[in-house]
Design goal:
The structure is a single chain. This protein is of the alpha/beta class. Helices cover 31% and strands 21% of the residues. The protein has helices spanning 16-23, 76-88, 93-96, 108-120, 133-141, 156-173, 181-195, 202-211, 244-250, 283-291, 310-320, 387-400, and strands spanning 3-8, 29-32, 41-45, 48-52, 65-68, 73-74, 97-100, 104-105, 198-200, 216-219, 257-265, 268-270, 304-306, 308-309, 324-328, 338-347, 350-352, 363-370, 404-408, 416-418. A 10-stranded mixed β-sheet has the order 9-7-5-2-10-1-11-15-19-20, sandwiched between helices. Strands 14, 16, 17 and 18 form a 4-stranded mixed β-sheet that branches. It has a two-stranded antiparallel ribbon with strand order 3-4. A hairpin with a 2-residue loop joins strand 16 (338-347) and strand 17 (350-352). Helix 4 crosses helix 5 and helix 4 packs parallel to helix 6. The structure holds guanosine-5'-diphosphate (GDP), 6-O-phosphoryl inosine monophosphate and magnesium ion. Residues 12-13, 39-41, 297 line the site of magnesium ion.
């Protein structure tokens, strides 16, 4: 058995949480492999709307195993409150959740450092979610991080004291907020709680599950254009978000990857700073924000909106080896006479179909596409889709060479149309 992978092809918030929830009945194990509580994955069903940050989006289905893989970073304080919220809804999280012993922990001081570093950047702020993601991945690579397995070891106190001493020096230098006694008490409560959860070697668990022919779905966070290597650096997150990260982030061999579901919105959004070639600062941009309710699931910030960018989409498909495309938020375009799509970029060196080193210096070249201009509320099959939408999907398939196998036409679990 191989691991299927689902990931975002744009700047995050493509609707990954919703689609993982839709696909979960077909899988036994759902694994997050990178990122942390900077993610906000929204699920809607039975009129409940729920946002997950660190827990995989399979958690609402019983008899599934949800795994926090070693490539993630978790904040014990936020994880505890996320679990408590789910328990209040009747979800039995503790028996359904496994946590890698190698996952790096976000300390309150990582969050304070994130804020201090952003403040120092002045007008070039990354627009981080301020969850401590950059500082915790920095410590992981610098080999001074604290991991979940350390909570169960006799050397925990010494490692904790060392990292706090290191952070205190940095916070003083960057004029950050002090780590208070209240912060420390909250941390101690949270790690006592975390110690009682299932902290195990998840790479053995996942590989043994595959050997037993169990199905596994890897759930990406953020999106390819926020990848630390391939995204619009430095306006990116601090992890690799591409398919290759699945192997490192959960401990499976590259040859064990199966289907790669690439999720993209029928238009584009971005939250935070950095280049965004197809951004619209006009009525159409506002209409996309209003129709798509484009406000951040983690921070509530208004998302920047723009037209679909085929140059970026094709780059993401190439980097990830996408085998199936899933287009979301199609309904948001229901009331446009005309839809634009960027098919190339123009720079002082001429036109290109490739992502340049510096995304700031280009202008998009648009193709105009006829809108379907009608609601999709009563459409449940691909045959019943308006012809203009069928043509739009066919054009995307022709351009990318990848089939669009599902489209999402609303936030609810049921609002999905199978195309194959
Ligand atoms: P994720 O981070 O990729 O899981 O996406 P988010 O949850 O941050 O953002 C997607 C938003 O769009 C959420 O509010 C979803 O409820 C909503 N959503 C998902 N799919 C659709 C869709 O097809 N149509 C509409 N209108 N909303 C959707
Ligand atoms: P999901 O999984 C959208 C963005 C932030 C910021 C940059 C760096 O919900 O799609 P960080 O907190 O990682 O230091 O922020 O990345 N960002 C996201 N944007 N969706 C996300 O996750 C994001 N996670 C981080 O806005 O621009
Ligand atoms: Mg999100």
């Amino acid at each position: 058995m191989k691991v299927d992978v689902l990931l975002g092809l744009q700047w995050g918030d493509e609707g990954k949480g919703k689609v993982v929830d839709v696909l979960t009945p077909g899988y036994k194990n759902i694994v997050r492999f990178q990122g942390g509580p900077n993610a906000g994955h929204t699920l809607e069903f039975n009129k409940i709307k729920h946002v997950l940050h660190s827990i995989p989006s399979g958690i609402f289905h019983t008899d599934k195993v949800n795994i926090i893989g070693n490539g993630m970073v978790i904040d014990p304080i936020l994880l505890k409150s996320e679990i408590k919220e789910l328990e209040a809804l009747g979800v039995n999280v503790k028996t359904q959740l496994l946590i890698s012993d190698k996952v790096n922990l976000i300390l309150p001081t990582h969050r304070l450092l994130d804020a201090a570093y952003e403040a120092k950047k002045g007008k070039n702020k990354i627009g981080s979610t301020l969850k401590g993601i950059g500082p915790v991945y920095t410590d992981k690579v610098a080999r001074c991080g604290l991991r979940a397995g350390d909570l169960l070891s006799d050397s925990y106190e010494e490692k904790y004291e060392n990292i706090i001493a290191h952070h205190t020096i940095l916070l003083e230098a960057y004029k950050g907020e002090k780590y208070s006694d209240e912060d420390e008490a909250e941390w101690n409560d949270a790690i006592d709680y975390l110690r009682k959860l299932n902290i195990i070697n998840t790479e053995y668990y996942i590989n043994q599950a595959l050997d037993k022919n169990q199905t596994v779905l890897a759930e990406g966070a953020q999106g390819t254009m926020l990848d630390i290597d391939y995204g619009s650096y430095p306006f990116v997150t601090s992890s690799n978000t591409v398919c290759a990260a699945v192997s490192n982030g959960m401990g499976i061999a590259p040859a064990k990857m199966g289907e790669v579901y690439g999720i993209f919105k029928a238009y584009c959004t971005r939250v935070g700073g950095g280049p965004f070639p197809t951004e619209l600062n006009d009525e159409d941009g506002q209409k996309l924000r209003d129709e798509g309710n484009e406000y951040g699931a983690t921070t509530g910030r208004p998302r920047r909106c723009g037209w679909l960018d085929m140059v970026a989409l094709k780059y993401s498909i190439m980097l990830n080896g996408v085998t199936q495309l899933i287009m979301t938020k199609v309904d948001v375009l229901n009331h446009f006479n005309e839809i634009n799509v960027a098919t190339a970029y123009r720079s002082k060196n001429g036109e290109t179909n490739e992502i340049p080193y510096d995304l700031e210096t280009i202008d998009p070249v648009y193709k105009s596409i006829k809108g379907w201009n009608q609601p999709l509320d009563n459409v449940n099959t691909k045959e019943a889709l308006p012809q203009a939408l069928k043509d739009y999907i066919q054009w995307i398939e022709d351009e990318t060479g990848v089939p669009v196998t599902m489209i999402s036409v609303g936030p609810d679990r049921k609002q999905i149309i199978m195309m194959r």
